[in-house]
Amino acid sequence: MTQPKIAFIGLGAMGGAIAANLIRAGFEVTLYNRTREKLSPLLAIGGHAAGSVEQACAEAEILVTMLADDSAEEAICLGAAGAVAHLREDALHISHSTIGVAAARRLAEAHEKAGQHFLSAPVFGRPDVAAAAKLSILTGGRPELVERAKPLFDAIGQRVFPMGDKPEAANIAKLGGNMLIATVIESLGEVLALAGKAGIDRAAYLDMLTSTIFTAPVYKIYGDLIVARKYEPAGLTAPLGLKDIKLALAAADELRVPLPIGSLLRDRLTALLAQGADQEDWSAMARLAARDAGLE
Amino acid sequence: MTQPKIAFIGLGAMGGAIAANLIRAGFEVTLYNRTREKLSPLLAIGGHAAGSVEQACAEAEILVTMLADDSAEEAICLGAAGAVAHLREDALHISHSTIGVAAARRLAEAHEKAGQHFLSAPVFGRPDVAAAAKLSILTGGRPELVERAKPLFDAIGQRVFPMGDKPEAANIAKLGGNMLIATVIESLGEVLALAGKAGIDRAAYLDMLTSTIFTAPVYKIYGDLIVARKYEPAGLTAPLGLKDIKLALAAADELRVPLPIGSLLRDRLTALLAQGADQEDWSAMARLAARDAGLE
């Protein structure tokens, strides 16, 4: 079986690491990115450069995207200069981007109209996990599309979690997961503010929590940032974090699912941005609980 | 060094398991419980029965309590028939009960006036963890009191986490931890309602979450209960859960620390009790998110 030819668009920290693993696994990958300087390390290991979306897609059997948000994804895919217009019939678009339900549906429809296929495949894992090819991949799409994507998934991740046949199922699953992460940040921020004001050593308290009940690395990673008040450089910026919470709430609105904690997180992140935290990590949310308590 | 004589009061699921481990470790333990039938298995392994608090405390150098709430703890300790009145001078009271800041202070003061000592030592771990002598023990009290309690802690737990010299530091630390557990329940309830209404298999979704980011057992344990809608028999009943959240909020009120998630949890658990869930586990809170979404 010959390897499918791949077009890869979106070479940020995550996309760059994923593309590198595909190239190393022997795929023929043609790369496109809005800012060209991200290409060099990938060309050095065997990737091919494209000067436009059209050029990237021309020969591709599979398009992989990893873009920041709905509008970046739609800008790349839709319209006369977009991927849908330039991919061949039967091509498969695997989208690793964390996008919303409405965007996923629009993309799926556009591809279907063009005789192409769309597989939502958002991932869990930070850039170091992507570099180690240990991403967790959620899928929304029919089993045969997941099967077709499998050689690529094998090269970039450690496990695939099918969430259903509809593309948006994977997006809702991912957005729900991100809401849970934001919940960890906010709740840690609150109890660390309480502990701090009670005169308890915050680092010792966090150590107790993460050594007993809250052993998942997410508590340690974000707890350390909160204890150190170290919110830069950002892993996920506050604006992107808010974007994800709003997408979760939009999905919940459409399905009529009240999310009291989700709504609280939206307000917290909105307040954080109102205070000028655009460049900070979304864990800076914890500063609000500390400030409210008169601690900072 | 001879082992100190111990009085042990409060033989529920947790207290019974802790007392058994003290007896097995060779301590001379005199037991008192409001309902006497809890004593039999402990007498069978070498415990001594007392008919009253006074009788239990008469010879004790160390009193250990594990009681349900502030009022049970104060009823046992204060007043003419209470432990403070009947313990000898220099006796140490180790309280494993999850009590509030105000109660911890009142107990510490009463013991101090009587020339005795008080060490707050709430624990993390369910009855099976207590039975395995693997509790995590938080302490609030001066280092010499923690040192004096150490032979007992060695027999019942796996690690001691000193939270400060003031007794209430340990209680605040424990209450904050319980608030984080309740946050896990509520946030899982919300995202599982969202996933369920989106047509995602809830068990598959939970498996994805607990296999990727949320690997701490607390997510799996409560997630399984929520997916199975199995809220009885209760591990921690909803009324006791609400008690803990209210104690966290009371501590936060006194210290002037707003806790938005804490307040939300109070409302959720109050609504749960309004619907008659007194015998259910506090994870039944997740039913509210499902009901709000029209799922049950």
Describe the protein.
The structure is a homodimer of 296-residue chains. Chain A has helices spanning 13-24, 40-44, 53-57, 70-77, 83-86, 101-113, 127-131, 143-156, 167-197, 202-211, 217-228, 238-255, 260-274, 286-292; strands spanning 6-9, 29-32, 48-49, 62-65, 92-95, 117-120, 123-124, 135-140, 157-164. With 296 residues, chain A is of the alpha/beta class. Chain A has two domains: 6-165, Rossmann fold (3-Layer(aba) Sandwich), CATH 3.40.50.720; 172-292, N-(1-d-carboxylethyl)-l-norvaline Dehydrogenase, domain 2 (Orthogonal Bundle), CATH 1.10.1040.10. A six-stranded parallel beta sheet of chain A has the order 3-2-1-4-5-6, sandwiched between helices. Chain A has a three-stranded mixed beta sheet with strand order 7-8-9. The termini of chain A are far apart. At the A-B interface, strand 9, helix 9, helix 10, helix 11 and helix 12 of A face strand 9, helix 9, helix 10, helix 11 and helix 12 of B.
In short:
The structure is a homodimer of 296-residue chains. With 296 residues, the first copy, chain A, is of the alpha/beta class. Chain A has helices spanning 13-24, 40-44, 53-57, 70-77, 83-86, 101-113, 127-131, 143-156, 167-197, 202-211, 217-228, 238-255, 260-274, 286-292, and strands at 6-9, 29-32, 48-49, 62-65, 92-95, 117-120, 123-124, 135-140, 157-164.
Number of strands of chain A: 9
The mean pLDDT of chain A is 97
Count the helices of chain A. How many? 14
Overall form of chain A = elongated
At CATH level 2, the architecture of the largest domain in chain A is 3-Layer(aba) Sandwich
User: Radius of gyration of chain A, rounded?
Assistant: 20 Å
- The amount of beta strand of chain A, in percent, is 5-15%
Portion of residues within helices of chain A:
40-55%
